[in-house]
Amino acid sequence: MKKHNFSAGPCILPQDVLLKASQAVLDFNDSGLSLIEISHRSKPFVDVMEKARSLALELLGLEGKGYKALFLQGGASTQFLMVALNLLEKRAGYLNTGTWADKSIKEAKIYDDVYEVGSSKEANYNYIPKGYEIPSDYDYFHCTSNNTIFGTQMKSFPKCDIPMVCDMSSDIFSRVIDFSKFDLIYAGAQKNMGPAGTTLVVIKEDILGKVSRKIPSMMDYKVHVSKGSMFNTPPVFPVYVSMLTLDWLKNLGGISAIEKENEKKARLMYSEIDLNPLFKGYAAKDDRSMMNATFTLENENLKDTFETMLKEAGINGLNGHRSVGGYRASMYNALPLDSVKALVEVMSELESKA
Ligand SMILES: *Cc1c(COP(=O)(O)O)cnc(C)c1O
What we know:
By secondary structure, the protein is of the alpha/beta class.
């Protein structure tokens, strides 16, 4: 039986996508060949790559606006470094909202100067800093739209006169945003899009080519753009599965349709966290993430009972990250509302037992 999968990443994908993907591994489009044993330069795979790239831009509403979509390797973590290598000449401003933001700052500092425009590190990142200024003479501003580990999410984005870069790994394609505010967006596939192994980078072409340093080919966005995301062998399977997920989302009605589902799930989850006296939310209420709900069980003596009940209900992947503790319910696009209902039922049953 399929479990309720609240895993933070890699995480749940639509069942229909998994079926199509497994079929393609055996026999891709009735070709008598597996998707993963054909040349990446062959027409069938080039078509997959082109469809994945165009679906990404289409869903984000960025078609015909000077953006290119790339499917790169090395995870979002490699983007921490590529962003700095390609865009950082003198100084950049970073918003420090969590472990991933902190890591992106550390990588950028290898190359040049980084200024933290705001940080919630002192509060173990349980809120999103506000009211910060972004100096207009910096090379770019970098932020993280959703903080997967702490369960906070930026509800709005600052006015910014310089290129705005955003790590959207854990909430891309989950809510309506004016994506054209951003000059570079990146997202590891394994949270809302596909298997680990590829990272979507959406980039406004005119911000490239402005730094004086030499950039190694594999690290150079311009190289990947000019080669249509095929400079070297792309991760064919993750790109294919991402394409299937993006197609699934398009058929559902796109981001605005999935956003409504995500809102329903989050509302149900947080109302249980707030109303059930046994649990306490971790993130500041105004900054709560629609994707990752972090909470603790106040009475440690109930831990074993709660976890046994979760297991019996087929609920998987609820453990919080070690830097927060407690629990984290990740409610990515593919998680059905019924899974949240199942979790909320266990939580209220625990209350009636206590
Ligand atoms: C998971 C995650 C990352 C790291 O992604 P990798 O692909 O493992 O490098 C970076 N940023 C955010 C916001 C994440 O959720």
